[in-house]
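[Meeting: bench + compute handoff]

Bench side (C.D.) handed over the final construct sequence. Compute side (W.E.) agreed to return the predicted structure before the next meeting so the bench team could plan truncations. Sequence as handed over:
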Amino acid sequence: MQKLLQVLSLGTTVGETLGEGFGGPVTAIGYFMVLAYIADSIPKPVFNLFSNLGRYGLTSYIAFNILMMFIFYGFGMAMYGQISVQMLLLIVAALYILLLIVSNVLAKYNIPALERTFLINEKMKQE
């Protein structure tokens, strides 16, 4: 919004430069502050539901990419270019919910995942 007002009010190269150079970072900081406020006001049980997805971030990332490859490429369902944006949003939302459920099950039963592969000196920590 701030960038748009600057560009429309001045309509010159200086206005566009100001809008891009100043308005972009200020808008990004504003978005970050709004997201930080929302994250701080979320009830603890809801926050814990999503925190397990972050705990298994690498596993979730790789699983999401494998599932999307299966949906879109030839060795799977080969749906590339055949679905609408709305259907893609539904697919991504469904996969996100699936990953939320899987990450909470992994956390509940303390099942190690790919993140354990990158721990340094884990054998020494156990001894």
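W.E. noted at the follow-up: The first helix runs from residue 2 to 10. C.D. will use this when planning the next construct.
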